[in-house]
Design brief:
It is a single chain. By secondary structure, the chain is an alpha+beta fold. Strands 1, 2, 3, 4, 5 and 6 form a six-stranded antiparallel beta sheet that branches. Helix content is 47%, strand content 15%. A hairpin with a 5-residue loop joins strand 2 and strand 3 (33-40).
Length: 212
């Protein structure tokens, strides 16, 4: 894995990414953080049974996660203050996330073999340039993020697109618009726990009682 990273990191650093371990961050002009993370396959204990498409042997392979971290969304989700924000953002701390393979023509998860370092690094770099970096570039600012969520949010975030939009808008002081997104989410939801979450979120954001 170190060998793959050594081939990829210089080009990514030229694009403004800083690296620590297996993760790279880039802060946009609007304070969003783009994340690229290299995830190694797990080591399963001896005797583990593998089933194609259900449980595959991933040891000796790796995949790539990409995502966008929005500080105010993370702060609300995890009750963190801005001063408590992580120095390095990891993939699981993003509200928009994908696997590199899912952004490519296959539209499915891809794991690369660490036994072929040069070949794997070349393919990953090509895919980063053609798929991941343009994808992340669609989220350079909060305005762009809101536009993407409105246009294609269900693909990116499934049920979370409206709640993310509401948090961003509320942080801007656009409370009427934020309330509208949460009301739309509540009307479309059939899960009682999800409805409870939406009402609790509205209270946390300082919104009036939302319509359902």
């Amino acid at each position: 894995m170190d060998g793959v990273q050594n081939q990829l990191y210089p080009a990514l650093k030229e694009r403004g990414y800083r690296a620590r371990g297996r993760t790279l961050n880039r802060t946009t002009s609007d304070g969003l953080i783009h994340v690229i993370n290299f995830q190694m396959g797990r080591f399963d204990p001896p005797g583990t049974s593998y089933i194609p498409w259900l449980r595959e042997k991933l040891y000796g392979r790796f995949t790539v996660n990409v995502g966008v971290h929005v500080p105010e969304v993370y702060a609300v989700w995890f009750s963190w203050s801005k001063s408590g924000a992580p120095a390095l953002v990891h993939a699981h701390e993003c509200c928009i996330e994908s696997r590199l393979g899912n952004l490519g023509p296959e539209r499915t998860d891809v794991w690369w073999n660490l036994g072929t370092i040069d070949e794997a690094a070349a393919d990953v770099m090509s895919r980063l340039e053609s798929d991941a970096l343009p994808f992340l570039g669609r989220f350079e600012t909060r305005d762009m993020l809101l536009q993407e969520l409105a246009r294609n949010g269900e693909v990116l975030l499934t049920h979370r697109s409206k709640t993310v939009s509401a948090i961003v808008l509320a942080a801007r002081g656009q409370l009427t618009e934020a309330r509208q997104f949460l009301s739309e989410h509540a009307r479309q939801s059939r899960d009682p726990k999800d409805l409870q979450y939406v009402h609790e979120l509205a209270q946390k954001l300082g919104l009036d009682k939302i319509e359902t």
